[in-house]
Amino acid sequence: MSDSQTDTPSDLSPLLIHLLKGVLYRDQQETLWQALMTLQGRVRDYVAVLGLELALDETEGYAYLRQVTGGEEDSGVPRLVPRRQLSYPVSLLLALLRKKLAEHDASGEHPRLILTQQQIVELVRLFLPDTANEAKLVDRVQGDINKVIELGFLRRLRGQHDRYEVRRILQSFVDAQWLGEFEQRLQEYREHADAK
């Protein structure tokens, strides 16, 4: 694919900088998205030198850079994109949101999955120790929600402090295989808890 002669490094720079900082969403950065559609080949070539690859989902409207995995961790090339260790509650929340997104997609309803804070608390409640202090539970889950927002998998709706959109990029990070393995571990946790 060849880009037009009018494309200059100044067209590529803002796009690369945005991608190096995080996820590019079509609905939030239309101008940069159009630049990506035009300069996709050059972006891929440029980031490959850094040991990165462009992950692009045109249907869902997001793009981001990820570390190329060559199989060996000690290949001599340092990681540009750091790995993040997630706590159990945050991993649990991500898995439950991914499962809810899959169920929502299967139902064929509205394309956006919007959940309230209370709906998210109810999703997580089954996997947390019973507590008589409802406010403490809500605060704990809200802390996990804030972390998931920071990671970019949830977005607080403008003007509605307790309603959240589950971002479709979650499908890219929590794939069906990971979700299946996590589901198996959750079942083991349930069985272990029931045995006590």
UniProtKB/TrEMBL annotation:
UniProt cross-references to InterPro entries, sorted A to Z: JetB
Pfam families, per the entry: DUF4194
Name of the molecule in the record: DUF4194 domain-containing protein
Organism in which the protein naturally occurs: Kushneria aurantia
Upper taxonomic lineage: Bacteria, Pseudomonadati, Pseudomonadota, Gammaproteobacteria, Oceanospirillales
